[in-house]
What does this fold into?
Amino acid sequence: MPEPLATWTWRLERVRNGRTVLTRAQAATARTDLVNDRAAHPADYADYEEEYATALDELEVLSRQANRHDDLLTVMAADRRAAEREAAANGTASAGGSTSTSAARSLTSLATEHDRVAKGLPEALDQWVHRLIRYRAGVKIITPIEAARAEIRLRNEADLQPAAYRTGVAAAYYNRVIRELGEIATAERPGRRDAPGLTRGLGAALV
It folds into this structure.
C-alpha cells in the first residue's frame, strides 16, 4: 500500500475508534495530498482502489464537520498552558538578566535534559526522545504528517519487539513519546514550540 494511503487509512481507523481527532483543515489537506499522490503514482494505487475511495470519502466528511477535541489532547494542552504560564512568570521575575545569560541558561538546560535520557533505549525510540526534547524547546519543527508516520513506525517496532519497548525503563519513554507524537499529529497548526519548554521533560520520562 502506498505510504500516504497507509498513513491516513491507519489514522482514520483511530478517528473511528475515538482515539484521535482530525481538524477540518487537516482532513481537507490530507484528501488533497492523497489525490495528488495517486495522480503522480497511479500504478501504486492499482490494487488499493477500495481503500483509496474509502479514505477520500471519510476525509471529505471530516473536512465538513466542526472540529472536535479529544479529552487527552485537552488535558495535555491544559498542562502545557500551565507550564507556559509558570515559565512566563519566572521569566518576568528575572527580567533584569541579560539576553545572553538567558540564552546560555536555555542551552545548558537543553543539554542537561538530553543528558538525562536513559542509555540503551531502542534506536528509533531514542531518536524521537531527543527530537521531542528539541521540539518542546522550540528548536525543532515536527509536522503532523511526520509525527503520524513516526507514531506508526514506533508502534510497529513495539509490536515486533515488545520486550525492548514495553518493559523496564523504555516503557515510560515509549508511552510518553507516543502520547506527544499523537498530540502533534492532530495539531491544527504544526510548527515550533514557542514556550521556553515544559517543566515535565522527556529526559525524566514523566508519564
Observations:
- The chain has two domains: 3-64, 71-204.
